[in-house]
Write a structure and sequence with these properties.
306 residues; mainly beta; Tachylectin-2, Chain A; 4-stranded antiparallel beta sheet
């Protein structure tokens, strides 16, 4: 039975693809997305959870979750994307642990580049500093000793906030907000937001659009990473208030139309997104449709994948 289960999981293996919106949120809404070719890495590994480190007219530098099928766990990598061919031209692993890594959230402050990757298996949210010259991450400090999932940082007038879901319900309805007076200070729970549906998990850092603060969140009502809910963020004396502005489902014309769970926009406007497909297209699609049918007929509960 275990061997059959293993074979089924292998046949259902995901394959994620990145896309670039040169004019950010406006291009996403209009479906103007440059889908990225994985070049020499195609069929060997996929890239997801993208964050933009920097870019110019020739090249985009991303930090991503890299998943090599031979390694079978996530690692944090630096990618170069060529803006003429829209192809990944280089991938370098910058953090590799014994446990799964993903969602390398970038935080820039006082000339330093910090990265807070998800590593809930460690039981803590860790901060690393990115050594640009040597292209590696160096551990700095543990911020919050909880099993957080896809945590983001936000700096407001009253200090620093960490917004996150956590194990055992990472894809559910509850978002936890932590607060500290300083970046490396003690973070305490400030607020717990209960949504009416499964849209609590972050899908990227908050960004400003036409004067509005927007939070990308994962819509996991059907499956993990089914769509992205973009929420207008406001604050009052009680804390954060979220109201949906726009919902995006994958617009990829081919295999990568079965999910999307990360959107990140650089302050200068360019944005990156990921979309989900299957390593084995035909079999993966068939098993996906069978699972959806079983769920719709109430024969099977949804599987909450990480």
């Amino acid at each position: 039975m275990k061997s059959l289960t293993k074979i089924k999981r292998q046949l259902q293996e995901s394959a994620w693809l990145l896309g670039i919106c040169e004019n950010g949120y406006d291009d996403l809404k209009a479906g103007r997305i440059h889908w990225i070719d994985n070049g020499e890495y195609k069929g060997k590994k996929w890239f997801a959870d993208p964050f933009i480190l920097e870019y110019d007219n020739a090249r985009i530098t991303l930090l991503v979750e890299e998943f090599d099928y031979k390694i079978n766990r996530g690692r944090i990598a630096r990618l170069f994307v060529d803006r003429k061919s829209w192809t990944v031209t280089d991938c370098k692993i910058i953090l590799d642990l014994d446990t799964h890594l993903s969602f390398p959230m970038i935080w820039v402050e006082n000339g330093h580049v910090y990265v807070c990757p998800e590593n809930y298996a460690s039981g803590t949210l860790n901060v690393y500093e990115y050594d640009v010259a040597n292209e590696r991450l160096t551990f700095v400090k543990s911020l919050i000793k909880e099993r957080l999932t896809d945590a983001i940082l936000y700096k407001g007038d009253a200090g620093y906030y960490v917004l996150s879901t956590c194990i055992p319900t990472p894809n559910g309805k509850k978002l936890i907000v932590y607060h500290s007076d300083s970046l490396y200070g003690e973070y305490k729970v400030k607020q717990e937001v209960e949504f009416p549906e499964n849209i609590a998990r972050n899908a990227g850092k908050m960004f400003v659009y036409n004067g509005l603060l927007i939070r990308p969140s994962q819509e996991c009502n059907h499956t993990y990473g089914h769509a992205i809910s973009f929420q207008i963020v406001q604050m009052d004396e009680k804390g954060f208030i979220f109201n949906e502005d726009y919902s995006y489902q994958s617009t990829h014309p081919g295999n990568y139309k079965y999910g999307t769970h990360t959107y990140n926009q650089h302050p200068n406007g360019l944005a990156v997104i990921d979309v989900k497909g299957f390593r084995y297209k035909a079999i993966g699609k068939l098993l996906y449709l069978m699972q959806r049918l079983a769920i719709n007929l109430h024969l099977k509960k949804e599987i909450w994948l990480q």
